[in-house]
Structure formats: C-alpha cells, structure tokens
Design goal:
alpha+beta, Arc Repressor Mutant, subunit A, two-stranded antiparallel sheet, 4 helices, about 50% helix, globular
Length: about 80
Amino acid sequence: MPVDIETLKAEGKPVEGRVKKSDKEELIKTLSEQGYTIKELAEMFGAARGTIYNHLKKLREEGLVKAYKVGNQVFYAAETE
C-alpha cells in the first residue's frame, strides 16, 4: 500500500527513494489498469516525482512499461505486447 507522504514529512522521515521492490510490482499492476502521469503516480505512491521517473525509466528499459503523449502530458502504462 502506498505511504502517505505528508505523514512521513510530519514524522521527519525521509521521503526520497520510498518505492520498494513490492511497490514496483504494485506500480506495474497499477499501470496495467490504465495510463498515469508521473505526478499522479507520485501522489498515489507517496514518492517524489524523480523517484517515480527513475523507476519508470528502468521498467521502460526492461520493456515492461511504455510512455505515450496525450497533448502535452506524458502517460505511462504497462506494456501489453
């Protein structure tokens, strides 16, 4: 389950790099349902946008995730092919 970023901040705990291996699996599962922007994923998982971007970059390199543009926004979704 995603971590609440505001709770972490209030407790003085680190926020960066909060996506764990189990969260990566959850990330792929979430992306298999529909496409999301990095901002949306960061809010859902309680992680920094940069952290989400780095995980998505690795997943794209592995061929598990694809990116596509709609207007000026970039969406990420699980690769189905």
